[in-house]
Amino acid sequence: MAEATGQAAGPRDLLTLQNLIKRDPQGYEEEFKQQFRHFEALFGIFELNPSKDSRPFQDLVTFLSHVSSCYPVLTKDLPEQLMALLERNHAILDGRLRKNLVRALMLMRTKGLIDPVVLLTLCFKLFRVKDKGLRNMLYEHIVADIRNVNKKRRDNRLNSMLQNLLYTMIADRNRTAAKLSLDVMIELYRKSVWTDAKTVNVISNACFVKKHAKMKTAALKFFVSDNDLDVGDASSDDANPMAARQEMMNAYTHASKTRSRKRKLDRALARINKAAAAPPKTSLVEPNFPAIELLYDPQGFAERLFGQLKGSTDRFEVRIMVMDLISRCIAVHELILLNFYPFMQRYMQPHQQHITLILSIVA
Predict the structure, then answer these.
(1) How far is CA 213 from CA 101, 102, 220, 297, in A?
(2) What pTM was estimated for this model as a whole?
(3) Where are the alpha helices (DSSP H) in 24-131?
(4) Would you tell me how many other CB atoms lie within 10 Å of the CB of residue 43?
(5) What average pLDDT does the segment 52-71 reach?
(6) Distances in whole angstroms, Cα of residue 250 to Cα of each of 44, 183, 239, 265, 292
């Protein structure tokens, strides 16, 4: 391997060394130290000239992120160094290097080497970067990381810190960062991670954002969506028993015939036949709007929406969503909102666009 004062090892050499270190960390500690010294030398250069494009530096960052868990004492300051470089120079760093640094930090977070709040704070700040690919990668990581943190048990202290951070980002002056932060909250609600009243009411504030049509539309869609909670896919057996039966028979026909497979097929077919023979459910289902039910002040919320609607210059589709949300608030909380239905009469004309939807709103 190359010495720290010479040329950096090539990507293939680093990949080979990476595999060897994972098998025998103690046996290759000296080789790791050589590469780490080379990284520190290049890091010093990048602090002086962060806009410089350097493939060897990217390769070293990737290498260190994969093997850092093998030498936790030697690399204890590595995450802080990379985050500091990103935080100070994210606007001028080369795009490929910036993505490489973010991927390295995500990998070290997966290995448990970085506190989630520390990394997620940086990720939210990087929403301001003019790099759509990077923003999409950050969005997916944030949602997945928060979901994984709460998978086994809910960490209320951690959730509270992250929620406060998100609430601040939603009010950010950078429109892209604010919109993505709102999208994160909506997605976490739909994934049944954050379903508390505080989250819903923060999202409700986005319905009144001025001069940010995309953010306002996203908040309105969140409340008027028919399926605002992801409770899992419905059983395909119940939805279409004939198609499910045919699919199982085809799978069994093209598989090797064993007694175990035959028993599983028989049990599955019996379950499908039972579901198909069951009488259809005829009971009426009451509308279910769990997000609207969590509003702190539904009367005040509906009145603000109606006041905004009367003077609105938004697209007609957006105004229809506002009407729909007001109508749902009235239905769920049994509100009294004067002049709302007289106001709706102006849209109840035979030639009116979307008249069927408007009639369903006032029904």
Answers:
(1) 33, 30, 10, 24
(2) 0.76
(3) 29-48, 55-67, 78-89, 95-110, 116-125
(4) 16
(5) 88
(6) 62, 41, 19, 11, 45
